[in-house]
Amino acid sequence: MIWYPYEQMKTMKEPYKIIDAKGVYLYTEDQKLIDSVSSWWSVIHGYKHPVLNEAIVSQTEKFSHVMLGGLTHEPVQRLSEKLADFLPGDLDYSFFSDSGSVAVEVALKMALQYYMNRGEKQRTMVLALDHAYHGDTFKTMEVGDDEDYHFVLNAYGPSAHVVHIPTKTAALEQAFEKYHGQLNCMIVEPLLQGAGGMRMYDVSFLKRARELCDAYDVLLVFDEVATGFGRTGNRFAADLVCPDILVLGKALTGGYIGHAATVANKKVFEGFYDDSPEHALMHGPTFMGNALACSVANKSIELFETQDYMSKIRRIEGITRREMDGFCDERIKEVRMMGGCVCVEVKRAETLRGYQQFAYERGVFSRPFLKYLYAMVPYIIREDELVRVLGVMKEWFRR
Ligand SMILES: *Cc1c(COP(=O)(O)O)cnc(C)c1O
Fold it and tell me: Residues 6 or more apart from 259 whose CB is under 8 A from it?
């Protein structure tokens, strides 16, 4: 039996069985659905993309995987060089892993050990945001802040190693004043907090965070697993404010295979780079740098660069604003938009009950959670398809 994610298996409804997928469409036996979720925000180029398929097929004919311990290969070398070019500043040192959660774990381990290597063992604390989501493994749950995902952590009581603050400058300044000597890093989902409810905040908060991190010598970590590759309307939030460590996942491989990268700047890398074996980063996921994942990631980034994806995302934002501006209903708390993301937050979760099936019958796959009905479409979506996705959302409130 398959144990499905985030589901009470006793009461869950039957999942839709997908038999084919192409472009923005998922196919079941009897329905053709626009995937308004991009398979958890990852399939930015759509399904069965000929260039990405070809990348996987041709690499498979050489080899699919070799370990990165003691071995290396061209696809991973190319990806590391590509990321160094593609990412801002001196974010040039990529540590690969197989999922976003693991990549965040690696970032947090890096931040902690960076100071331990300098003999500053008192810097055990992490500053994080209210409503943060950084993954489902234990340390990522600890820096996360969502009862709905991390209820099980209550067994341990409050964490002595994490402080959570709202995205308000005053709270940020207070936290630095109080804890700066104990902090190793501040971790944020920049501009857009995804699984915590598609919450959007201003870049001025990140600018202030950068200043304070510099002033108190604390590392700044951006978890761009969800926001990277254009979702906020910026290539990366890191283009606006440069972190010390950047975490990429989800869209890194165009949604083809699970893979992630923890990318450090020179300062962080040099905190490990010396003659002492104890100062090495002791981490090594079995499938890190997987050759199929790196091959498809290389092509995915190439498509992103050469096909002017940023203008596709601006077009999506423009159409979304045109269709959703002024849309309201007494059951709606707020409609939020940013880049390739739109979220309708309702006042009560019950308002969204039945929406998934309603959308299914109208040719759209959607997966609202809690009080959030949202769309994060593949960037290759056509205007009429996007209008359809948004139209079904609006129709739900007009029944
Ligand atoms: C999805 C997500 C993760 C976790 O990635 P997985 O690949 O599911 O482990 C971490 N951080 C953010 C911001 C995410 O959206």
Answer: 96, 97, 98, 99, 249, 252, 253, 290, 293, 294, 297
- pLDDT over 90 (residue 110): yes
219-251, pLDDT tens digit by residue? 999 999 999 999 999 999 999 999 999 999 999
> What fold characterizes domain 51-306?
Aspartate Aminotransferase; domain 2 (3.40.640)
Residues 6+ apart with CB under 8 A from 381: 24, 34, 46, 316, 389
**What's the pLDDT at 29?**
98
Kind plus residue range of the DSSP H or E element containing 185:
strand 183-188
- The preferred substitution site among 96, 134, 141 for testing ligand 1, maximizing ligand atoms within 8 Å of CB, is 134
Which residue from 229, 223, 220, 266 is spatially nearest to 247, judged by alpha carbons? 223
Instruction: Tell me the three state secondary structure of residue 373.
Output: strand
The alpha carbon of 5 and the centre of ligand 1 are apart by a number of angstroms equal to: 14
Measured distance CA(8)–CA(157) in Å, rounded: 24
Q: Show the ligand 1 pocket: residues with CB < 6 angstroms.
A: 99-101, 104, 133-135, 189, 194-195, 223, 225-226, 249-250
Give how far Cα 347 sits from Cα of 22, 334, 350, 384, Å.
35, 9, 9, 29
381 Rama sector, left if φ>0, alpha if ψ -120 to 50, beta otherwise:
beta
Class of the CATH-defined domain 20-49+308-398: alpha beta
Q: Where are the domains of the chain?
A: 20-49+308-398, 51-306
